[in-house]
Every structure is written in C-alpha cells, then in structure tokens.
Specification:
CATH architecture: 4-Layer Sandwich
Number of helices: 4
Protein name: Proteasome subunit beta
InterPro entries: Ntn_hydrolases_N, Proteasome_beta_3, Proteasome_sua/b, Proteasome_suB-type
Largest sheet: 5 strands, antiparallel
Pfam families: Proteasome
Structural class: alpha+beta
CATH topology: Glutamine Phosphoribosylpyrophosphate, subunit 1, domain 1
Main location: nucleus
Order of helices and strands: EEEEEEHHEEEEHHEE
Strand order of the largest sheet: 10-1-2-11-12
Radius of gyration: 16 Å
Subcellular location: Nucleus
Helix content: 25-40%
Strand content: 25-35%
Distance between the termini: 21 Å
Number of strands: 12
Length: 204
C-alpha cells in the first residue's frame, strides 16, 4: 500500500456557472481500521478560495498550517487578500521546495477569480499543476470517482444542481472503496458566499 493511501481519502471538485464546489469524505483511518469519521480535509482560505487535501493526514495538517501562515504574511505585506492564481502557485512552489522529502499530499484548489469565473487546479506531490475547466478527482477512490463524474457532469450547472451532482458522485464512489467514506462534506462557493453541507453515508 502506498503511504498516500495510509489514511484513506476521496475528493472531487467541480465547476458550475459562476460557482464551484468541492466535496470530500470524512473518514480518518489507519489502513483498514477507522479511527474517526469527522476528519476535516477541506479548508476555506478566504472568500474566493477553497483548498482540499488528500493523502497522509499528518502532512495534510502540516501543509495547511504552513499555507495559512504564508497567506497571512501575504495579506500583511500586500495589504490585500491573495488571489486564487497566486495561491495555486504558492501551493505548487511549497510542494516543489520539499521535492526531496515531500509532503504525501495531493491538493485540490477550487474557487473564483476576480471576475467570478470558476478556477480549478490540482497538483501531484511535487507540485506539478493541472488546470481543468470541468472537474478534478483525488484520493484512493480516484478511478471510481472519475467514472461517476464523467457520466453525470455537464457544463454550466447552477449551485443547487452542482451540489446534487457532487453529492451523488462522491457517495456513489466511496461506496466502492473501504478506505474512504463514512459521511461527506460538500462546499459550494458562489460570489455571495460559501455553503457547507454534511452528508450521511454508509457507516460499514
């Protein structure tokens, strides 16, 4: 088993019409043993940026804390919030800095640009960026999630439709993986704000 699969994870991010969404499971495990079902994997950086991490839980928490510190330093120095494009480059550069002893984490960044158009980016463990205009998947369940998303996703979904598609794709995907699941959290970001919803899933 890869060290990136040690704690288990499943994550999807999708774009809609003037909105983005990101969904992640809530399980924290040690291989096949479940330790908690309320583990947070998605974080709100500011009003325009959501970032999710799949991979090793300890590296996830370390990288999130260091990113939050860097964003606070940026805000103090520049006297403005970091843009999502700059944040994506910051995440990639921090991962590349550790390329010889890297974080076992695959970040997924979703948010809105200055003109409120959707932005979606993922990267591997050394910071190689991948930009998409429809959806990205990450975690142990990536193959199953990818098939579900390809079947159900369509462009220009509204916030409510995006929530429904994200929820169904994630819950269906984690049903086929014992290392992920046990509930999910879905975040929908629009220019008006972020809505967080907790979903119940299979608990076996």
């Amino acid at each position: 088993m890869s060290i990136s699969q040690y704690n288990g994870s499943a994550m999807i991010a999708m774009t809609g019409k003037g909105c983005v969404g990101i969904a992640a499971d809530r399980r924290l495990g040690i291989r096949n043993m479940t330790k908690a079902c309320d583990f947070k994997k998605v974080f709100q950086v500011n009003d325009k940026i959501l970032v999710g991490f799949s991979g090793l839980a300890t590296d996830l928490q370390t990288l999130e804390q260091r990113l939050r510190m860097r964003c606070n330093m940026y805000k103090l120095r520049e006297e403005r919030e970091i843009s999502i494009e700059a944040f994506g480059n910051l995440v990639a550069s921090m991962q590349y800095e550790k390329r010889f002893g890297y974080y076992f984490v695959e970040p997924v960044i979703a948010g809105l640009k200055a003109d409120n158009s959707p932005y979606l980016m993922s990267s591997d463990i050394i910071g190689a960026q991948c930009f998409k205009d429809d959806f990205v998947v990450a975690g142990d369940t990536a193959e199953t999630l990818f098939g579900m998303c390809e079947s159900v996703y369509r462009p220009d979904l509204g916030p409510e439709e995006l929530f429904e598609v994200l929820s169904q794709c994630l819950l269906s995907g984690v049903d086929r993986d014992c290392l992920a699941g046990w509930g999910a959290t879905v975040y929908i970001m629009t220019p008006e704000g972020v809505r967080e919803t907790h979903l119940k899933g299979r608990m076996d």
